[in-house]
Sequence to fold (347 residues):
Amino acid sequence: MDEKEMLSAGWRSPSNIALIKYWGKREGQIPANPSLSMTLSQAFTETRIMVSRTPEMSGIMSINGVKAHPFLLKLNLFYQWFLKEVPVFNGLTLQIQTRNSFPHSTGIASSASGFSAFTLCLLDLASKLTQVHLPEEHFFQLASYTSRMGSGSACRSLYSGYTVWGRTTLIDGSSDVFSVDINDRVNRTMEKLQDAILVVSSKPKSVASSLGHSRMNQHPFSGARVDQAHSHLAEALTALKQGDFEHLGSIAENEALTLHALIMTSRGGDILLDPKSLLLMQRIKQARAGGLPVFYTLDAGPNVHLMYPQSASASVRDFIQKELIPCCENNLVIYDHLGMGPQTLKN
Ligand code: DP6
Fold:
C-alpha cells in the first residue's frame, strides 16, 4: 500500500451471555472448561478501522480521535500479538472509530463485542491488503481464534444463536482455541429466547475478569468446578435439543450462583452482587414458582439477565414493570434476544 492510499473496514459484532460460564484459564487463553453462550442482538459494538501508511508512524494512533483512550492499553497488547501473527500490518497506522449500542456505562461487558468487532475489521483489512480471501466459514473461525486472544468470551460472539467454546467430547470439532456454532443441535422452540438485562448498577467492574480467572488457579474448588461445567454442558445440550426451557434455566441459574460462589471464596474474597441483585434473583424464583417461565443468569457483576421464551413476552414485561424495575438503576432495562451474529458495515 502506498502513502496516499487509505483502506477501511467496518463490522458490527454482538455481545453474548454465557449460560455455562468460562471461569479460569491457562496460558495462551486456553479455558479451564467448556462454556456455552447465547449471542445477543441489541447489545453490540460497531467498529471501523482506517489504515494508512504515514512516514515514521505506526500502530494504533487513536480511538474515536482520542490518543489516550482508556481501552487503548488492552487493545495495544492484543495488537502487538496480532502483528506477530499477521506481519502485513507492520509499518501501518490505524485509526479506530467505535461505538456501543448499549448506553455508556451500563456495566454491561463490552469486551466480547468490542474485541470481536475489532478482530473482524483487522482480518477484513488483512484480506484486502494481501488479496487472499478465505471462505466464509474459515474467516469466522479465524476471527474466533484471533479475538480469543483479546478477550476469551469474544470468541463466542462470532456466530449466531448458541455457541460452545472449549474442547468437549460431546461436540465433534469443538476446540479450546475457537468456538463452534451448535445451532443444528437446538430445538426450534429455543430460537426465540429473550434476555431482559436488569441494570442494577452501571459502575465499572470492581474486579477485572483477568484477575478473577487467575484466582481460579489456586482455588480449592477448581477441580470440582471443571467437572461440574462438563456435566452441566451435557445437561444443557440435552435441554436445548429437547426444547426443555425449565431444565436449561435450572442449569443456567446454578452456573450463575456457582460463578459468584467461586468469586466469593477466591483469595480476594470479593462480593460482586448487590443487595438488589439478590432481591431480583429471589423475585424471579418466586415468579417461576407462580408459573411464569423465567430464569436468571449473571456475569461477574451485579446486573441480572432475565431469560424467557418469546411467547411469554407480554406477561414477563408486566412482571418486570411491576416488580423488578424498582431495583434497577434509573429504571434501566435493556430488552434483548437471541441474535444473528456479526455483520459487515457499509462504507
Ligand atoms: C464471567 O472473557 O471477560 O463473563 O478472557 O480475561 O478477557 P478475559 O475474560 P472475559 O471473561 C468472561 C467471564 C464471564 C463468563 C463468560 O462470559 O463465560
User: Anything to note?
Assistant: Residues 18, 21-23, 35, 111, 151-153, 209-210, 213, 259, 299-300 surround DP6 (CB under 6 Å). The two ends are 19 Å apart (CA to CA). The chain has a mean pLDDT of 95.
